[in-house]
Amino acid sequence: MSPTKIHPDQMYIEGLATNDSAIIQTIYKKFVPKVVMFVMNNSGDKEHAQDIVQEVMILLFNQSKANTLQLTCPFDAYFFLLCKRKWLNELKKTSNKGVTINEDAVSINESALELIGHTEEFDEKQQLFDTMFQKLGDKCQELLKLSFTIKSMEEVAEKLNVTYGYVRKKKSLCVGQLTQWIQEAKNFKSLKNN
Amino acid sequence: MNEERYILFDQYLQGEMTVEEKNSFEKQLSEDHEMVSEFETFKEVQVQLKNKFEHEDEREVFKANLTSISDKHFNASKPKVVLMRPWYYAAAASIIILCGLFFFDYNNPTFDDYNNPETASFVERGDSDTNLIQAQAAFNDGKYDVAIPLFEAILKVNNTAEIQYFYGVSLLEESKYPKAEIVFNELIAGTSVYKEKAKWSLALSKLKQKKYKQCKEILQTISQDYENYDDVEQLLDELD
Hints:
The complex is a heterodimer.
Chain A (H helix, E strand, L loop, with lengths): L9 H8 L3 H10 L1 H10 L4 H20 L9 H20 L15 H26 L2 H13 L2 H8 L3 H30 L1
Helix pairs in contact in A: 1-2, 1-4, 3-4, 3-5, 4-5, 5-6, 6-9, 7-8, 7-9, 8-9
Chain B lengths: L2 H11 L5 H13 L1 H22 L1 H22 L8 H18 L7 H4 L15 H11 L3 H14 L3 H13 L3 H13 L5 H14 L3 H8 L9 H11 L1
């Protein structure tokens, strides 16, 4: 594998991660009009475009916060393609007609496609995680939230007015429950793909 | 749910096992593929939980900021459609007709609407070039006829994009179009920071000469990164 070189456009990613208004505005000014055009030319309207863009921005924020986003291609191509694919998937979901995604692969370099693959995988995993997290009981949700914000399990126990031993065990089991559901979903998916 | 297993996973990750327990756990892992896969997912879930809660406040702030920027962006380029009741239409129509009667002659945008020459500040502290100081003062006072020969003298010895730009603007203010447009075109062909500004000035020159079509064509070549792109959009709108 050749060493990957980070593209100077990484500044847009950093700007999103640090909630830099000037950078966010620049992204809207420079890169969003193209997305709007595309959505409007493909059975959507401005509101659809606005939503898609917002979803992708939040996705990029999350991925950069997880430290797994390093841009190796221009932001322009990467961002546009992400939005485009998200919109086409949206169309697929809502219409019965099959929508074919024509990749104008010639104009996109390999590293952009690879990067988009990573981001979409991140997105998928996160959506699965979020769905499963919502399925957990209130007690588990509360305990996990405290465990991952407070860090010290002694303090968590104190706050919930239970013993340390209990929160430790309960935390393992709540994470275990999530693990089990996600594992099942993964197994089901690989079964479907094989 | 295999409770024992998840408790083991957590103990292992927290480093709460004795050496023997650890060895036996790792041995078990090495023999059981399914367990490895489940252990990986367990670790992944921990990372996701960490990401979810560690940045939760930041994420909310980001989303709020994003929404406000997004709304501003989308509403600026598209005025919100407001539902109007029928009698509003009648009222609105009559006002439009009245305005139309009053302003019929002023349909086209004029040069004066957009003529805001910026303040020149090319003289640096300690600069003793009298031509430069006088040119800047004359330009900022709006005495362009005085500034022009001074700029010409300066350009002979010190031909910079900045001076060219202000020279061009002075020529335009004095309605010396051919000369001004040569200067602007030269800047447009170059790579200085005055490139986009020169396009805007050239467009204004066409506007001043009431060459609306040419003005529009030039405006359309201006990059959206241009600092006063709002003016460009507004003028384009008015020219339509």
